[in-house]
Amino acid sequence: MGLVYAEIELINSYDLESARRHIIGEEEVKRMPINILVDTGSYMLAINETIQEQLQLPVMEKKKAQLANGHVVEYDVVAPVEVRFKNRRTVCSAMVLPGDSEPLLGAIPLEEMDVLIHPLRQELIVNPEHPYFAQLKMK
């Protein structure tokens, strides 16, 4: 199977809450569509510094991550960021990769949105068993 990319929208969740409380206008909510690599081998959402700056996501902590080559590196973790794909959404943390590194959509947000990789079409799809809402596993 080749690389799978998806068109998603990332939104600053603090801004969404401020808009719901009428502190800022809906047009002031920082959001951006991105084409992201779907990476089931990665746990978290990973964005780059450019995306973090544009969405103005605050750093909450630092976490270590093991790269594919075995090296362990420490990254900033920002939150909360809302991820939207088709009729699905989730709010999660994101590791911040250096510079303009390629963003990754990892297993945790994929599971929370109940989306799957269609192997023949090589695309991200909403789970056909639950087309209208995400259904999470509790066991």
Q: What report would you give on this structure?
A:
The protein is of the alpha+beta class. The chain has one domain: Acid Proteases (Cathepsin D, subunit A, domain 1), CATH 2.40.70. The protein is 16% helix and 45% strand. The protein contains 3 helices and 9 strands; from the N terminus they run βαββαββββαββ. Strands 1, 2, 3, 4, 5, 6 and 7 form a 7-stranded mixed sheet that branches. It has a two-stranded antiparallel sheet with strand order 8-9. A hairpin with a 2-residue loop joins strand 5 (72-85) and strand 6. The longest helix has 8 residues, at 13-20. It starts with a strand and ends in a 13-residue tail after the last strand. The mean pLDDT is 96.
The CATH topology is what? Cathepsin D, subunit A, domain 1
Structural class, from secondary structure content? alpha+beta
Write down how many β-strands occur, each being a DSSP E stretch of 2 or more residues: 9
Q: What percent of residues are in strands?
A: 35-45%
The figure for the number of domains is 1
The major pleated sheet works out as: 7 strands, mixed
Low-confidence stretches: none
Distance between the termini: 29 Å
The succession of helices and strands, N to C, reads EHEEHEEEEHEE
Secondary structure: helix percent? 10-25%
What is the correct CATH architecture? Beta Barrel
Shape: globular
Taking all Cα atoms into account, the compactness measure Rg is 15 Å
Write out the CATH superfamily name.
Answer: Acid Proteases
Overall pLDDT confidence: 96
Q: What is the highest CATH level, the class?
A: Mainly Beta
- The helix count comes to 3
